[in-house]
């Protein structure tokens, strides 16, 4: 049963999830900050774009810590790679698919005001029912899209 | 401790967790969405349980954050645009198996392919702001 559901074992998933929850929980308890990630992109664009939608106070006020947070994420990846002694991962998903998916992700996350971390972890941890609706919605369209792509043979 | 340092350290723990959980590999996310490996549910479940405790107990026990002024609240109201946005986000996530956090953390693992996804996310966010930015529901 466990082998069927988790062919690579369950423990690294659970440990990783607990670490992620601890990071988001600590950011909240220490600094009072809600650690979603999609706003990082809009907040960073506020440095280079004069668009009114990208110059909102909430982006300007939070862009410094969001940049530090994203830098930390990269650092966490580096620490993991170093501790494992492996550096230089890659993916079989083709560049254009990554780019197209990225555009949809960036557009949708801004429209929805949240991503897998913002709605999926912070929103659910805040017991916000709109976030639950968002999570169910993006999980549904993601599963449908991934299944369609898999059956179309577009991706390995 | 400044909030920048806190954000940096918490970000590093987040990135380490994402890497340990192999969420930085689009193939693992796609395996979940194709129902061949349900590990993502353990990642999400584990993260939500710990964050839930902090979010629910913190403001009840502490007058203010340990090194901050006040506890932020997520207040995205329910709206049609929020649901449509989530649907579009999910389509992109299902297409390429990447979401914002893993795309950033994966760079640290040396996976430079993810720059394509990161570039796409910036472009998508800019397009939304440029052509649909007048309606304002950005609360975080």
Q: Could you describe the 3D structure shown?
A:
The complex is a heterodimer of chains A (156) and B (140). With 156 residues, chain A is mainly alpha-helical. Chain A has a domain at 91-156. Chain A contains 7 helices and no strands. Chain B is mostly helical. Chain B has one domain. Chain B is 67% helix and 0% strand. In chain B, helix 1 packs across helix 5 and helix 5 (100-108) runs antiparallel to helix 6 (114-132). The two termini of chain B are 23 Å apart. Chains A and B meet through helix 2, helix 3, helix 4, helix 5 and helix 6 of A and helix 1, helix 2, helix 3, helix 4 and helix 5 of B.
Order of helices and strands of chain B: HHHHHH
Task: State the total count of DSSP E strands of chain B.
Answer: 0
Question: Measured on Cα atoms, how large is the radius of gyration of chain A?
Answer: 18 Å
How far apart the termini of chain A lie comes to 26 Å
Shape summary of chain B? globular
Number of helices of chain B: 6
Kindly report the oligomeric state of this protein. heterodimer
Beta strand count of chain A: 0
Low-confidence stretches of chain B: none
The helix/strand class of chain A is mainly alpha
Q: Report the biggest beta sheet of chain A as strand number plus sense, adding barrel if it closes.
A: none
β-strand amount of chain B: under 5%
Return the average pLDDT of chain B rounded to an integer. Answer: 93
Note poorly predicted spans of chain A.
none
Question: Percentage of helical residues of chain A?
Answer: over 70%
The general outline of chain A is globular
| Percent helix of chain B | 55-70%
Q: How many H/I helices of chain A?
A: 7
Task: Report the order of strands and helices of chain A.
Answer: HHHHHHH
Structurally, the number of domains of chain B stands at: 1
